[in-house]
């Protein structure tokens, strides 16, 4: 995520859906370490406590990102590659196809 994306997300998404006091837990990516950028995006009258997840702790704090979703994405990629390789007539980009693919992976 670039600095511009973070600013847009904070202004147009995050602050529209939270109260006057909120806690924001963020990763330790370089973009998020720019405290001046984060402080500039906070509207007046809002109080935000920013908590940074320490580096190299994703397996401890977000185990689904490391184990569950990794396997899920790998399985989806294999199905997608199979459809492309065998030239199966299917529009995988359409909403209905995406839902069916996710349902197949889930089951």
UniProtKB/TrEMBL annotation:
It comes from the Eukaryota. This is DDE-1 domain-containing protein. It comes from Hypsibius exemplaris (Freshwater tardigrade). The lineage of its organism: Eukaryota, Metazoa, Ecdysozoa, Tardigrada, Eutardigrada.
């Amino acid at each position: 995520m670039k600095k511009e994306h973070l600013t847009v997300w904070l202004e147009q998404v995050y602050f529209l859906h939270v109260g006057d006091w909120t806690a924001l837990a963020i990763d330790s990516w370089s973009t998020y370490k720019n405290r001046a950028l984060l402080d500039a995006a906070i509207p007046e009258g809002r109080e935000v406590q920013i908590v940074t997840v320490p580096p190299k702790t994703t397996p401890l704090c977000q185990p689904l990102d490391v184990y569950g979703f990794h396997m899920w994405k790998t399985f989806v990629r294999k199905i997608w590659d199979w459809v492309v390789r065998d030239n199966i007539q299917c529009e995988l980009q359409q909403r209905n196809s995406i839902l069916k693919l996710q349902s197949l992976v889930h089951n």
